[in-house]
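Quick one, C-alpha cells below:
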C-alpha cells in the first residue's frame, strides 16, 4: 500500500510536498526581497501566539503596501491544513507573502497579485532544554542592516552573514551593535540583560524587530513582579551584566553565558533566566499543552 506524501507546502492556492514547491523566477520576493514573512511555533499540533503573529504580519503588509486579500480565518485554515498534512506535531510554520510576479522593474507593478506561501517543517523544541541548562555564547558584530528592520522582510542578507560569522566562530548568535555601542538585537533573536534583578531590552524602534517572544516575555515578567526596562544598553553594559539572555520563536528563552569570549556573570545560567524560562514554559503549556522532556 502506498503512503501518500506529506503535504507540507502551500503556494498560490495549491498544497504539495515541500520538494515540489516552487515559485516563478520573476517573483518579486526572489528578485528584490520584496516580501514579508512570519515564523510561528507549532507545539502539540497547536500554533503558539497565532493572533500576535497575524497582527504583526498585517502591520508588515500594510507598511509595504502589499494587498493580501486572505482573511485571518482563511490564513488559519491553510495553516491548520498544512500542520495536519505534515503529520508533525512540533514544528515551524513559515509564511511568506511577496508582491507577486511581474516583469523585472523596481517600481510596483500596475496590478499586484500577492503570492502567499507557507511551509510546515518538523522542529525539535526539546533540543532547547540542553541549551537552556548550559547557556549559549554570542559575539558582537557591527549593525550593517537597512533602517527599517522593524518590518519583518526577507531582506536578511546582513543577518545571514552575521549568523554565519558567529557560527563559524562557534557561537550560537551574533548581536548587532550600533555605531554608538548600543546592543540592538541578535541575527534572529532579541537581546536582553539582567542588572540588579531588572530585565533590560532595547526599546521598540526602527532598529529592532518587535519579537513576539520579546513581547510575551515582557508581559510574563511584569505579571511575576520582575521589573522590565525597555531602554538601550551598551555592549560594555552587557559584558558587565549579572545575566544575559535571548528570545525568539525558535529559541523561546536561552541564557547567554558569554559575549565575545568574556563570561557574563559567573559564566553559567543565572537565577533570573531560570525563573523566566519556567514562566515561558508554563505559558507554552497553557496555550498548547506542550512540555519539554
Ligand atoms: C532580527 C530578529 N530579531 C528578533 C527575532 C525574534 O522574533 P520572534 O520572537 O517574533 O521570533 C527574529 C526572529 O526571526 C529576528 O529575525
Amino acid at each position: 500500500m502506498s503512503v501518500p506524501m506529506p503535504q507540507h507546502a502551500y503556494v498560490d492556492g495549491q498544497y504539495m510536498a515541500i520538494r515540489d514547491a516552487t515559485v516563478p523566477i520573476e517573483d518579486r520576493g526572489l528578485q528584490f526581497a520584496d516580501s514579508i514573512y512570519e515564523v510561528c511555533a507549532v507545539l502539540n499540533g497547536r500554533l503558539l501566539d497565532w493572533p500576535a503573529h497575524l497582527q504583526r504580519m498585517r502591520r508588515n503588509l500594510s507598511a509595504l503596501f502589499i494587498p493580501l486579500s486572505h482573511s485571518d480565518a482563511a490564513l488559519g485554515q491553510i495553516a491548520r491544513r498544512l500542520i495536519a498534512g505534515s503529520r508533525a506535531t512540533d514544528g515551524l510554520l513559515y509564511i511568506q507573502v511577496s508582491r507577486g510576479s511581474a516583469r523585472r522593474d523596481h517600481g510596483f507593478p500596475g496590478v499586484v497579485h500577492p503570492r502567499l506561501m507557507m511551509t510546515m517543517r518538523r522542529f525539535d523544541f526539546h533540543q532547547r532544554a540542553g541549551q537552556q541548562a548550559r547557556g549559549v555564547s554570542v559575539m558582537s558584530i557591527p549593525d550593517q542592516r537597512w533602517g527599517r528592520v522593524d518590518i519583518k522582510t526577507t531582506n536578511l542578507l546582513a543577518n545571514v552573514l552575521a549568523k554565519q560569522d558567529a557560527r563559524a566562530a562557534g557561537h550560537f548568535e551574533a548581536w548587532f551593535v550600533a555605531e554608538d555601542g548600543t546592543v540592538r538585537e541578535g541575527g534572529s533573536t532579541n537581546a536582553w540583560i539582567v542588572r540588579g534583578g531588572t530585565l533590560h531590552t532595547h526599546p521598540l524602534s526602527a532598529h529592532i524587530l518587535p519579537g513576539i517572544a520579546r513581547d510575551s516575555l515582557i508581559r510574563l515578567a511584569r505579571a511575576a513582579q520582575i521589573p522590565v526596562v525597555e531602554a538601550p544598553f551598551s555592549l560594555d553594559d552587557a559584558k558587565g551584566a549579572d545575566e544575559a539572555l535571548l528570545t525568539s520563536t525558535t529559541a523561546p528563552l536561552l541564557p547567554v553565558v558569554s559575549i565575545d569570549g568574556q563570561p557574563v556573570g559567573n559564566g553559567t545560567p543565572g537565577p533570573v533566566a531560570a525563573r523566566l524560562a519556567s514562566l515561558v514554559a508554563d505559558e507554552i503549556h497553557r496555550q498548547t499543552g506542550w512540555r519539554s522532556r
